[in-house]
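Ticket #4471: structure output looks truncated?

Reporter: J.K.
Steps to reproduce: submitted the chain below (156 residues) through the standard prediction queue, then opened the result file.
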Amino acid sequence: MARVDYFNDPNAPEANSIVPSVTAVALNGAGEILLIRRTDNNLWALPGGGIDIGESAAAAAVRETREETGFDVEVTGLVGIYTDPAHVMAYDDGEVRQQFSICFHARITGGGLRTSSESKEVAFVHPHGLDRLEIHPSMRLRIDHGLACRAAPWIG
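Returned output as attached by the reporter:
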């Protein structure tokens, strides 16, 4: 399903749903961040997705990372909670979601790189290489917060 992200756009459609979702910031031993290139909007992003009924947010981050990248992770902390109503995602079925994303720190515990139906590319990217990638501003904020040594999680 195709998706268009709107951020601080006065022409954005009005949200008609909100779906709790998760993302995970996972680094390899070289300090590179695990990213996917999404199939729905062609942007680079942290692995993640919606929380299923009966699933904890941390378990969703583990599951989504495995599904989209092939890597097993362990959640180690909270990066932040992102609920900006100025960020909406419009899907081709008419759904327009308001952002509600919980971003976690995660440690890679196993697995191996592979793509999925939601990730056309999977890569470890050095932080200095992030500016060369197309990343939505809201996702870039989560990445930057995940790479920073913050005393407390971001709430916003």
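Triage note (M.O.): checked the attachment and the full token line is present. Residues 57-69 form the longest helix (13 residues).
Status: closed, working as intended.
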